[in-house]
Amino acid sequence: MSTNKYKTNSLILMMKAPLTKETVAMRALLPHILQNGTSNSPSRKQLRERLDDMYGAMLATDVQKKGEEHVISIRLDVANERYLSDTTPLFDNAISLLAEVIFQPQLEDGKFVSSVVESEKRSLKQRIQSVYDDKMRYANVRVTEEMCKGEPFALTAFGTEDEVDAITADSIYKYYQEVLLNNQFDLYMVGAIDEEQAMSSVTEKFSALVERDKSTFETIASPEVKEINVVNEEQDVKQGKLHMGFRTYTTYADDDYVAMQVCNGLYGAFSHSKLFINVREKESLAYYAASRFESHKGIMMVMSGIEFAKYERAVEIIKEQFEAMKQGEFTEAEVEQTKAMLKNQLLETADVARGLVELSYHQVVSGKKRSIDEWMQQIDEVTKEDIIRIAQKVKLDTIYFLKGKEENQ
């Protein structure tokens, strides 16, 4: 992606494979091990020093769920050479370093270094624990588990503490070799770069990744909702977490996707949305209330924090507000405001290299092409009728309520 918009040039490598219980913890751990050192810079400190020498380049990793795909991303940001006085081929060096991180990790006795693996396992377990401590995130994990039982989407992006415990330097090294063979790799180069030179450099340095067919992986279609699943859980919490999961039967790959985005925007994604105004402000039922739409699984989550005693009324009004969407009880002005917010969000996301890649990567995951310009245009074209029609498909699936233990109430 050739652009002069950014001060830095970025390499963003996406590694995609199906989300499975057997591999989820290993995938969450792997990128952290890789950024601990390479065969040429066999410690985290030496690797950091090399990045510092490249005018403070930055290496970062992430792992996330996109529908039922599990995506590892490794990002390397370097200064744009045009702004430097010397003639270091900085971008080319960055390509070499990224290839080294991927293909030449630091090893001992033909496997990853045990002390590194153990230390990263501890950090990963702390991250898993921190979700449990953050009750809003915890409720989100729980409602997803309950709603998608038996579907890969029920898994978190990090795995469980037990799964992390079971990993050894040997097992993760074997898995790493499988990743190189079987994952789909997409490398994005963003910035003011000499395209031809960059392409030839990547072709040479990433030649270990054999040409492979684009993996066609289908996220499992959402099953029909037979009855609403209600789950209550008690913990020592001061504020109730009421999370409700809806199946929208619409994903990024569908033509109706953008209309669903507008529908979710009107319902709960912004401060002028129905949930915010009615649940939070008019009825003072919730400390917060919002909805989020997952693009590749097609699930809409309503998240709210409420007093324990207000559970019944909160559930009722959250349902009522979606019923109002189905009846078309919203104004053209609200639709226009939502569209403006969505377009603004898109432009803001595209304003940083990472966001631009995220937007483009939707197309890889879904197999559906939709450029940012087309997306903006499709937002403009959504009509009130489209929103009502798309709302009809949406079904409430699961109500999850995390409340305090009896003595607190």
Automatic annotation (TrEMBL):
GO terms for molecular function: metal ion binding. InterPro entries: Metalloenz_LuxS/M16, MPP/UQCRC_Complex, Peptidase_M16_C. This is Insulinase family protein. Residues 167-342 form the Peptidase M16 C-terminal domain.
